[in-house]
# Entry
Amino acid sequence: MPDIHDIPDEVLRNGVTGCTILCQMDFKTNPKNWWLGYGPLTAGGVEYQGTGDVIQISAMELTYGMSAGMVRFTIPNASPEMIALCDNQGSEVNGRRVQVLYQLFATDERDGEHRGRMIGDPMSVFVGRMKDMTSTSSADARTIELECYGRMSQQGKPPYGRWTHTDQQRRYPGDTGLELLTTLKDKAITWVPGG
# Structure
């Protein structure tokens, strides 16, 4: 995957660079690639369908080289048909891959090249799994939400396993470092410094 550092400084620092968001959602029967713009867009060899302002993406807290913990996609003005399609879609979305990417583009015309031209390839900012798609309907509003969880959230799983003999054996076969850990429950241990 390309890196922002692969793009020359003179391109990034000239004050005429914009950014858009691309998304790849691997739904079970009909995967979708879309972007927050209008019309079709080809970036990095992938075709994306424009959604305009139909879909909103929650704020993502990112650090360099890491993926956000959770991202929420929202369709705030969903049609009744969209709501009907949303219901009972657990098998279509749960556990399926989602990726959010940034695509830089030029906001000026220069050297005969058009405004809106791509700068570099898309850069991945989030990779995760889709989880819960929900819909809410009232007399004046219909909303669809889809939650996606990245590698940094792990849904309560310990980062490298548990502090148990079994997990330690899985990681380091033959190691006995945690073998007696369960016998230490409710015991007071006095450590005597070596002398």
Notes: Residues 80-86 form the longest helix (7 residues). The chain has two domains: 4-152, 157-183. The longest strand covers residues 118-137.
